[in-house]
Q: What sequence folds into this?
């Protein structure tokens, strides 16, 4: 996920970098820094896939005997094997399929019980309601200002038409109010 710039509104279409019109989850600047930290290149879709060490469990596992990193290599043409980087005593070479099975056993334990799932669902709904309420509250003040400025412009326009204020005065204030109004709308 962190390596995918789509969350900051950018994506690749073949060799062309495009900007997405959809709302983004994170701004581009921090996303770009994260991508750079991950592997030294802002966009490395093509490179990272062709790099030899891009094995499924690279960097995720440590040796149960000595604590060293587990590294992978390709044997017999296509089979991926994992083994202790130090090749310590007791270390074996394990096929990727076997690693997957072992990891799956651990993941199954994490299945969420029904009662807990209910609580989490309720919690998420609650926080969603909070977000909706906060958004409404945050929008209320600028919206009121926007409406007030609109009414003010209408009123001043009438005053100008009926000769109570000069066209110059109206023009000058109108520009100010339009700027304020655009800010409120934004
Ligand atoms: Zn080891």
A:
């Amino acid at each position: 996920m962190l390596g995918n710039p789509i969350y900051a509104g950018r994506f690749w279409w073949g060799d062309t970098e495009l900007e997405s019109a959809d709302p983004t989850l994170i701004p581009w600047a921090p996303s770009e820094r994260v991508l750079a930290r991950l592997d030294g290149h802002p966009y490395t879709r093509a490179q990272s896939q062709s790099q030899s060490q891009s094995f499924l469990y690279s960097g995720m596992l440590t040796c149960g005997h000595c604590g060293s990193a587990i590294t992978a290599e390709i044997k017999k043409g296509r089979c991926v094997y994992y083994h202790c980087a130090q090749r310590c005593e007791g270390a074996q070479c394990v096929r990727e399929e076997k690693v997957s099975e072992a990891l799956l056993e651990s993941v199954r334990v994490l299945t969420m019980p029904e009662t807990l799932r209910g609580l989490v669902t309720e919690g998420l709904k609650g926080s969603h309601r909070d977000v909706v309420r906060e958004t409404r509250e945050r929008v209320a003040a600028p919206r009121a200002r926007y409406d007030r400025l609109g009414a003010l412009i209408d009123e001043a326009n009438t005053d100008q038409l009926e000769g109570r204020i000069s066209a110059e005065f109206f023009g000058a204030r109108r520009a100010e109010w339009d700027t304020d109004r655009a800010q409120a709308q934004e």
Notes: Residues 114-161 form the longest helix (48 residues).
